[in-house]
Amino acid sequence: MIFNFTRKVYLDNNATTLISSAVTKAMNKVLKTHFGNPSSHHTLGYKAANLIAQARSIIASSIQANHKNIFFTSSASEANNQVIHSIVSDFEARQQTLKIITSPIEHMSIIATLKALEKRGVIVEYLTIDHHGHIDIEAAKQQIDAETGLVCCMLANNEIGSIQNIQALAKIAEQQGAFILSDCVQALGKIDINVNQLNIDYATFSAHKVHGPKGIGAIYVKDGAPLTRLIQGGDQESGFRAGTESVHNIVGFGQACKAIPYLLKQSSITLSLKEKLKQEVIKFNKNVTFNAEQSETLSNTLSMRIPSVDKHSLMAFLDYYDTSISSDSACCSTNHSASHVLKAIGLTDKQANETVRISLSAQTKMKDIQYLVKKLSHFFAAYNHNITLLGPNSIDYNFLNDDNNYILDIRGKYERLLMKSIPNSHEHHFLNYQEVVNTLNKEANLILICTSGMKSMLFAYQLSHSGFQNIKVLTGGLMAWKKAHAKLYHDLAGTNVIKIDE
Questions:
Q1: Which residues belong to any copy of the Rhodanese domain (predicted)?
Q2: What topology is assigned to 9-15+271-381 in CATH?
């Protein structure tokens, strides 16, 4: 495979961050020497329990909370679920109808949970937001009433970076006797968080957004706010979450939170790098627009829309040069519908498909931004010079039976087990690049297919670099084609398939 990378640039920090060396060191020590079960009544168990207590205090201190109000979970998604279901249980016990009001740009762990609860009779309403992604506080005063049990609103959005006036929203909720949950995952380490000043009842957090490990989250629960078990089976976490604690992950979370003062200090530097990136991009493409940037946003987050440019094409081009960005939330990356956040701020499906997210961290350097700008300038100068994007509707029965089309399915073995290939395609694994090049005619009319369209775009740029002239990519991949041609997939998928790599 031909890769000519000169610099690795990671700019998808809102999806996850690189774990810090201090966190890795602390976790390794726990794994090697503090392996006791925190619930066991012996020295090893007591030491493990003490490490959890220390981490709890550190995390509490980072948000100005009491350690008794912090409870560990496996993730912020679990934490959001536990809070919402706790409110539901509380209202069900009192045989009261529950109304939950939320913003339309929440994380899917909240949006999807609320949609499921609507089937159980929970009333769900959505707050009004402007085209910058900010809650209309005046409208919220009219909407949040005495019938409201819970208000859900994230402190900072993960896709466009908009920061909400949670303090004002919490005051409205308190006046109406409603609880308020704020997903603070993206805000932690980027803006100062004081749960007492915000006056929120619940806040949720995740370690892997602040250079900590994946698989560990936390809930802040204000005194008097209801909390019920989501997982049964043990008395861990003061009886609110069963299951042996993941001591090394909890210690890693605590160690990561020790660096929050440093991360907050670095936010001004991160902001200057983001502003530099915006200025440079506008120089060579004046049509670029930036979502939510006209108001208060996170210093590290840039949502950028480039008219007439397919986001998958740009992401694959940059990935070819070892530069990682994203289009929307990683939790929604397998869903090929337009981002609910971008739709909520008024973008059309087409505009959402032209939008990418660039998210920096305290570790991002000026050289990273300069490298990205250089690659972006190359992309704009030669966009789609010999790569054509095919919509899933265009690959119909006639297209499949056209002998001039060479359909190349580059999915891996296990992907093929999950979904059958398009009929008349040639299966060859994505990673066996040189073998593919050796078997293909450079004049052939190539149609590249993968599961989602992303690998196909990356592969297309490699082939273009090797001199292939007629390259087409199925946008949305097999998932989109199967949806567009359900009957064709049912009747013919997997037939007349040539397995080149076996």
A1: 401-490
A2: Aspartate Aminotransferase, domain 1 (3.90.1150)
Find the helix or strand (DSSP H, E) in which 183 lies: strand 179-183
Pinpoint the alpha helices (H) of 94-165: 108-118, 137-143
Give the C-alpha separation, 67 to 59, whole Å. 8
**Residue 6: which pLDDT band, with cuts at 50, 70 and 90?**
low
Distance from C-alpha of 427 to C-alpha of 500, rounded to nearest angstrom: 6
pLDDT in tens, 73-83: 999 999 999 99
Token pair 């084609």: residue: 481
- The count of residues in the chain is 502
What mean pLDDT do residues 372-401 have? 83
Mean per-residue pLDDT of the chain? 91
Q: At the topology level of CATH, where does 387-499 sit?
A: Oxidized Rhodanese; domain 1 (3.40.250)
Query: What's the pTM?
Result: 0.83
How do beta strands 355-359 and 301-305 pair?
antiparallel
What are the start and end residues of each CATH 3.40.250.10 domain in the chain? 387-499
* Contact of 184 with 296, CB cutoff 8 Å: no
Rg for the chain, CA atoms, rounded: 25
Flag whether pLDDT at 429 surpasses 90. no
The catalytic position among 153, 184, 257, 331 is 331
Query: Residue 366 CA to chain centroid, in angstroms?
Result: 24
Whole-number Å distance between alpha carbons of 107 and 156:
10
DSSP class per residue in 393-444: GG--HHHHT-TTEEEEE---HHHHHHSPPPTTEEE--TT-HHHHHHHS-TTS
The predicted pLDDT at position 334 comes to 47
Burial class from Cβ neighbours inside 10 Å (0-12, 13-18, 19+) for residue 82 reads: buried
Strands 202-206, 9-10: pairing kind: unpaired
Helix (H) or strand (E) holding 455: helix 454-465
184 catalytically annotated: no
- The DSSP string of 23-60 is HHHHHHHHHHH--S-TTSSSHHHHHHHHHHHHHHHHHH
Sheet holding 99-102, edge to edge: 70-73, 217-221, 202-206, 179-183, 148-152, 99-102, 123-126
